[in-house]
Design a protein that fits this description.
By secondary structure, this protein is of the alpha/beta class. The chain has eleven helices and ten strands. Strands 3, 4, 5, 6, 7, 8, 9 and 10 form an eight-stranded mixed sheet that branches. The longest helix has 22 residues.
Length: 297
């Protein structure tokens, strides 16, 4: 099970909740391998270099498999080189600011960002250039007409470490329950949720960014899935699909995932999973066009 980020982050926690139940369903041990860097493309390439026999399953999102090849010419694979076996979870995104940033809400943030744009622009961290979090923040920058300085990292954990330490001003990240505890401990603050759709109970007291007029059409969440290399035999995909669907109904796995604020996917056929993935690729192409993001190399 290839996880494209270091151990200890939100992606890793999903893998640790599911590798046991998936292994039980398959009658085999499922080992989690963490390979961070280059917005997940290092891990993705490792999977592509293996034989298409199902021995590697990639736990990923649009951040690793769709956006990098569409925004970075140095990435040599294409999204279609992976096949979606089964969706896993949907995660809300939250807008985090360092504890001593003098803002209480999105309106305050916009005002501060505009005031500092020409002197000391606000800084933010993401898991990499061309990631969903990067594109969203670029769109925010254009919407409020204020320069924001991007700092790319190798994974979520180092972003959060530098946010907590005050090295960056803010970050947009996938929500996990531990963030509530960190906020209570005074490490940073959550000032908005980036979607009003299916907001979990644990986030109900936080405003949605779309409630602010400037951001009324902002609606972002992220979904994770398990993928294999395209060309993997259908019988292997069906076997993996069945095992993953079974694991997602495991009571302990559901408790861990929902307890972390995630929405657990319902069972899907391989055909339904792949159809959803192709639709997601088309959607992100539109998002890139809307932001005017220029690819890097």
């Amino acid at each position: 099970m290839m996880v494209p980020y270091p151990a200890g982050g939100p992606s890793d926690s999903v893998a640790r909740a599911l590798n046991g139940p998936i292994g039980q369903a398959l009658g085999a041990q499922v080992v989690v391998e963490n390979v961070g860097g280059a917005t997940g493309s290092i891990a993705a390439n490792k999977v592509l270099q293996a034989k298409p026999n199902g021995s590697y399953i990639f736990q990923g999102t649009a951040n690793e498999l769709i956006l990098p090849p569409l925004t970075n010419s140095a990435i040599r694979f294409q999204p279609e080189q992976f096949q979606n076996v089964h969706p896993l979870t949907t995660t809300n995104l939250v807008f985090l600011v360092k504890q001593d940033l003098p803002v209480k809400n999105i309106d305050d943030f916009v005002k501060l960002a505009q005031e500092r744009a020409s002197t000391t622009p606000l800084t933010y961290g993401t898991v990499g250039v061309g990631s969903l979090y990067h594109l969203i923040t670029e769109r925010i920058s254009k919407t409020i007409n204020a320069t924001l300085i991007h700092a790319p990292y190798r994974g979520t954990a180092p972003v959060m470490q530098d946010l907590t330490g005050g090295q960056i001003d803010f970050a947009i990240q996938g929500f996990s329950k531990s963030m509530i505890d960190m906020e209570k401990d005074g490490r940073y603050r959550i000032i908005a949720v980036l979607s009003a759709i299916d907001k979990p109970e644990i986030l109900k007291d936080y405003p949605s960014i779309s409630s602010y007029p400037q951001f009324k059409d902002f609606d972002y969440r992220t979904g994770s899935s398990y993928f294999v290399k395209t060309g993997t035999p259908d019988e292997i995909i069906k076997k993996l699909n069945k095992a993953i669907a079974q694991a997602l109904q495991d009571p302990n796995a559901i408790k861990l995932l929902e307890g972390d604020g995630k929405v657990v996917a319902t069972p899907k056929t391989p055909e339904e999973a792949e159809k959803g993935y192709l639709e997601e690729i088309a959607m992100y192409k539109k998002i890139i066009a809307a932001t005017g993001f220029k690819g890097t190399n």
